[in-house]
Amino acid sequence: MLVHPAEQLARLLGIPVPLMSALEQEMGGRIGNTHVLEALVRENNEMVASALDALGVSGLPGHVVEERLRERVEKGEAELLASLGTPGEGDVFTRAAALARRIAHVPDGFFLKREFASRILLERPPERVLRYMNVQSVNELLGRFDVLEVFAALRFTETDAWMHETFRTAYASLAPHDFEERATEVHVLAPAWKDAATQFVAHKHHNVSHLKEFGVIFINPIAEGTPGAFIRDFALLFHYFHEINFYSKLFRRATTQKNFPERLASLLRGDVPEIASANPGEWLIVQRYLAKDNPRDARLTVPHVNPESLHWRRAERDLATFSGSGFPESLKFWKNLDWVGERFPGVEGTVSFDLEDNAMSLVSAATDTPTSFNYHQKEALWTQIFSMYAGGEERMEELLIENLERGVVRF
Questions:
Q1: Total-model pTM
Q2: Helix, strand or coil, per DSSP, at residue 304
């Protein structure tokens, strides 16, 4: 028996069918196209069938599909590590950072000047960092380390109170001339930061983070060793490239508006209004993965679009489309699968075909409480629906940038 597109999508998203049917009717009337969900479901089914065939699991139970997806992650990770060379050939994190710079498809961004970072440290010395490094002054500290590496290290050395007060004061008088055009940087932190960084990695459960306003991504060179962890974090590098590029566009836009310092601070805090419901024709902009904190969050059943899933889409596309000497061909399997999912008898919930979900599930398989993750795929599916109604990925990004401060897009 054929399943109506709205019903199939509702099942994949775990929401009541009437809500998806109402969305289909409302959006179809607003954009003049009543076949969007039908086309989306057809594409999803075709991509699922192609993926199952590539994995050799067509017609097999859902738990076998999950196992093969994780095996494909593990295979890609092993090939990726092999392409980066053996441990005796140099630091794998440094080589990974260099490879990420080659692969990431992002233009130069609009970031705070490096001298502004130095000025902040000179005006308000980070005492914990100075003690940790056993140096007497900021100048001595900057003589040993790049200023953006020091800024990255502030995240896991100074207190929240120090960070809040320092940046609140420093950013209060920012002006557009404090920014410049330059490339996004990736820094592998020096071994001297290892003890402090280890605690950060244990808390964050990954060894990559970033500073959007300075256009810098940093890697704590701490190998976790669990299958899936390296490729999970390597993919996160590309996510941050695209997130930083997205915010760079927001920073540029803010220079043309009133109250630039306040707008910048608001963007860095992520002050998107947390609206609980939407009127017909409205889509909420949600900037975090709600299901991580509360799988029963009511906003998960409301039409919404998540910039995070846009960044992940582009990150995984970078990995799946790159062709280089020795680069794993097996990663091409994951191209455009970020939003693709399927329900299988005997498996609770939607099986995600997203790379990051499956990498996280592989990591989790080594724990006492193994979990199959699918929240990246579900948010990506919502975002894909929005994209098709909006008129494509580029138009979707424009709408997100134009409406981020409102927290809602109105068709």
A1: 0.94
A2: strand
